[in-house]
Design a protein that fits this description.
globular; single chain; 4-stranded antiparallel β-sheet; Alpha-Beta Plaits; 94 residues; alpha+beta
Amino acid sequence: MAKLDKIDDEFYPVYLQIPAEKIVELKFLLESYEGIGELRTLDNDIALVVILGLKDTAAQIRKIIESEKENLKCLEVGQPDCISSDWLITTSND
């Protein structure tokens, strides 16, 4: 797994490369753990997503991803270059 990045003292992103057809499955999985984190698609073309978790939920998010990574066929990656400092409203650079 990638190192535990953080945006600030409260927000921890988990970046994943995942097959496009599995994004909805990941979204439903996360929603079943109400309040654990928010899923955002960063780049549709390469199926790059981020789960934005809180400091208190980061470890649980990583456990969920680890237990489902074979099913989801996902790979945790570091922060992509397309992310700016104000990444919450940023889309990928085209």
